[in-house]
Write a structure and sequence with these properties.
Blueprint (H helix, E strand, L loop, with lengths): L1 H30 L9 E3 L1 H10 L19 H6 L2 E3 L14 H34 L3
Antiparallel strand pairs: 1-2
Length: 135
Amino acid sequence: MINRLTDQLDFHGQALALRSERQRLIASNIANADTPGYVARDMDFAQALKQATTAAQPAGAMAVSQPGHIAGTPLARAEANLVYASPSQTNLDRNTVDMDRERASFADNAVKYEATLRFINGNVRTMLDAIRGGQ
């Protein structure tokens, strides 16, 4: 019974962790916009979320102190879904960061991160209302 109550929270929690990781990647790209030879990276979010939600954690799985510390955590699985950005224009320094694309991705991911937080808050409020009996 409790599993059915927490399934949505687990899904949104994994999505939130992956959104956070993607935001870190985009911020890293922006920070290295002037680094010669830097290749921008991004993640295939849909694929990473699919892997994170379909892979069941085995019974008695070890707890981790840092996200991505032990293979099998959502962030460690996200590392497998990293892709290189293809350059939108040629640069003499071979840097593939397109600031317009990175800013748009950063803003889009921030909005989706906020939406995920709202979904989690809504689910928690609904559960609390159900526990209280709708009073």
